[in-house]
Write a structure and sequence with these properties.
By secondary structure, the protein is of the alpha+beta class. The protein contains 14 helices and 21 strands.
Amino acid sequence: MTHTSSRERFSSDLATVAEVLVPGDGGYAESATILFAEGTPDVVVRPRDGAGVAAALRYAADAGLAVTVRSGGHSMAGLSTNDEGMVIDTRRINGVHLLDPSSGRVRIGAGATWGDVAAALRPYGLGLTAGDTAQVGVGGLTLGGGIGWMVRRHGLAIDNLAAVQLVTADGRLIGADAAEHADLFWALRGGGGNFGVAVGFDFIAQPVTTVHYGTITYQADDPRGLIAGWRDLGRDGDENLTTSLSLMPAAPGRPGVVMLTCCYASADGAEADKALRPFRALAPIVSDDIKPMPYADVLEDGSELPPGLRMDVHNTFFSTFDDARIAAVDELFNGGGAAISLRGMGGAVARVGQDATAFAHRDAEVMLAAAFLLPEDAPQDVLAQASHRWSRVSALGCGAYVGFLGSAEPSDVAAAYPTDTYRRLAAVKQRYDPGNVFRRTHNVLPH
């Protein structure tokens, strides 16, 4: 099909409510390419609002096009693009509007980034716990749950969510909250993009100004002892303090590194120093750059993967991070090639009921994520070896965080959603997307 005939194919009412791009158009490749994948969809649609999304869905249904929804484009499983069909790029639906300064209620477009949100709320002395990266989209992270730098103080992103505006598979724009479409609202808090195209989120922002944020780098002489010490301190730690312990493997010319990254969600320097003092005594320190800063400056810029490499990403939760699990993590690190992140949970996230949201891993003490950096053309035996090494650790875990899954197999979906959660999600899916239009996800099948 020529570029001209492609353009004529999509010259319909759709073009009056959204920008329509086909291969060869300026901007097409930028929308079709995401951090972990390069797509070649038949068409990219960039709607400006819910009406544009509805028109795109109607067009896709009439034309028989599979639908993929993109927000920030950071899906580790590559689910933000496709090689055929339609990509709905929501990034033009990116407003951040403070609706009620007294309550902190803010309405955020699904295509905004968390960097946009932090910058917009900063003048009001407000903030929202989100992820780690400024360029990550609000839509994808929120629908998966949202584990961020104030998770122990303010819970998950979804724990601060008051309502969602969503376009359903049949083109209806509806609002879901605790009173209206409450079953859908439950599912959207952790159930991913299975139920429609979220175009807006109402959050209750928290008073946040200055935080204490940065990284302590330790001498990595005894990684297992460091992990155990970090675990012990986290169990009784100040809930204002959220920490992540990262273990980076040795590389040519560089030894292995163990780093503690933390955010103390208060401007009180004395209390921050008190909370951090035992962490500073865990092991000899190579560097320490923790300092007070505006919360808006905490979110870091994302980095591109080096050319020729792929990242094989896995995660699991530990409800109890005991010595046997620490030994397994240490063995994975000592085997080389795996970058490991241990994130402290508990606090506010654990005070929400296990079945209150579709994110069901409320009892987790720690989340473990591991990334194997491999050549793009790595042979199957290399991939299998990485998978086998991970399986020895994950066998001791319980479940997975859908936002950090690098694949979307049925086993991944089963890990993300325990049996009772999945059964409830499937019923909501049957109600709102019985035709499984939104299957380019960690897919819950309608039932």
